[in-house]
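Hi V.,

You were right to ask for the full record rather than a summary. Here it is.
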Amino acid sequence: MSTSRSAEAPRTTAPPRLGLRGGSSGAAVVALLVLALVLVGMWHVTQGTSGVGFADLVRYASGARERVGGVPVGDVLTGSRLPRLLAGAVVGIALGVAGALLQSVTRNALASPDTLAVTAGSYFAVTAVAAFGIAVPIWASGTVAFIGGLLSAALVLAIAGRSASTATTRLILAGSAMAMALDAASAVLLILFKENTTGLFAWGSGSLAQLNLDASLRAVPLIVAVVAGVLLLSRRLDLLALGDDTASTLGVPIRSTRLVAVIGAVLLTSTAVTVAGPIGFVGLAAPVLVRLLAARIRSLHRHVLLLPVSGLVGALLILLADAVLRAVLGAEGAASVPTGVPTALFGAVVIVVLAMRLRDSGAARNPPQGRLAARSGRRFVSVAVVSLVVLGGVALLGLLAGSLWLQLGDVALWLRGTAPDLIAQALDGRAPRVAAALLAGAALGLAGTVVQGTVRNPLAEPGILGISAGAGFGAVVVVTALGGGRTLLVSAAVVAGLATFAAIALLARRGGLLPDRFVLIGIGFGYGLSALTTFLLLRADPWNTPRILTWLSGTTYGREFPDVAPIAVAIVLAVPVLFGMRNRLDLLAIDEDTPRILGVRVERTRLVLLGTAAVLAALSVVAVGVVGFVGLVAPHLARSIVGPRHGRLIPVSMLFGAVLVSLADTLGRTVIAPAQVPAGLVVALIGAPYFVWLMRASRP
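Predicted structure:
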């Protein structure tokens, strides 16, 4: 790795002050944090559903043995309050230290167990063990989570390439996409193995609810040992902040230091997941807050203080989030909302704030496919014709396949209106689903092409940018709170998707609408809106939760032709507009200066293009739910075959997107029929390996 700092990376750490100045200030910070933890802990322990208050606890501490509501105060304290308090402190310390380690070894302020998919990997491993009914001893459950988290982190760092310490956008895109794929795989297991995974959905957002003190007490020795071990690396980590060449000259073994630090971070994260589930973004926010504080208290730059202080801040964040949540919603109301929801919201804010301080990388970082010369017109025509034939075959397969397999003659009878009732009923249900999949796939392929060309980032797509999450949030608001019909659902999804895009664009325009900044702000919005969606789902009627979760995973189940009409109209209107802007798209995809020299109004054009993509993505959510990766995979496949010119790229990307979603929908409802896997999850499972290959191929 180079010692120079890339222009695209935010300044994550100041050069360490290796002297002892500010040591007393650092000790004062530690003392204040400990005091704050004690005070927050005292507030936290007074909250609960039993009615035991502060006065009751004081009397119990003084020796009185009272009952409140017929329950001994001591039983409430030791059976519920203290386990929750200890779990929050243990998990917060583990995640805070883990995040500080990952940020230090990558020299990236946006690195954390969540953005590097460590948390998602640990959660997937635990879910897989539960789903397949594998009996794992209690002491080994942490090992399962550790293996999943370690493999995920290793894969993300590998596909991000040697520039992982500086390429902020690339690293976070890799981690976010990997987390999406792992979350999709976890969701598949939750849907297919409902009996074995009962309760894992809520736990998957992070919960401090504990049966007793055992899990937290078992975690304490491991966390203490790991923290003590990584503190021995403090001097090496201080020197590593100076750059690889300098640190190596001063005798620091670079690879072994990074390896030990990453393993320590994964151990801490997997332990936290084992205790309380994946509580999001504490590992991001805590060390960021400490590094901001270090601008005034220089001794906090030293890892001997940075690591433990990050742990204390992490514990404080979790306990505050949990206490505030229960204070606002009440103990009964907050019981159904995991602590990970408010921490994810806070982490999303941190990502957005850091992204707004980002400087753009300048030249586009296109993978080899994006730099290919323009292909011949004959090839384009051949590809288009073959794609249309394949699309027809996939659509026909979608009509024939299912729990009841049909024949071509049955379709002919249905078209003439003379099919038997059973066949007519099957095709009446399948035809709208096939239409929804085809049109939504085409819209997502088109939107992905526009997004990638406009922001000059070949690894971006509407799902990663948060636009789909915004549309999904708007739709869930209607379903869970307003109970409106189809018109209100479509309107809410479009308005929410456009509002999300407008907010992202408004924030990204400060200092210029820079592509990398736009991408990272979109990722932050996606995380935050997903947390809000989870909050609404958990507060809604529990009988509706599986249905809404399935819809959010991307499904055509229950679709009717009126559900498809909005996306069909949008495509008819958008294609001529975008095709007419194809030359400007070609120029925007080159760099920031060329279109300006040739008279293109860059910001205005970019807003029009991205706004159109946002509408397409929002309406696709109405048609098939939230489906990721299509806007990433379809344009790349098209670009690798017909070249980068958008006049050819737009129609081929639409055809590829339609084929991908339709095929995924057909596979999802036939492979394990009569059970069904949402099309969005099938696409994610297909898209993840392609994304890994793509990023490996485009490494610097």
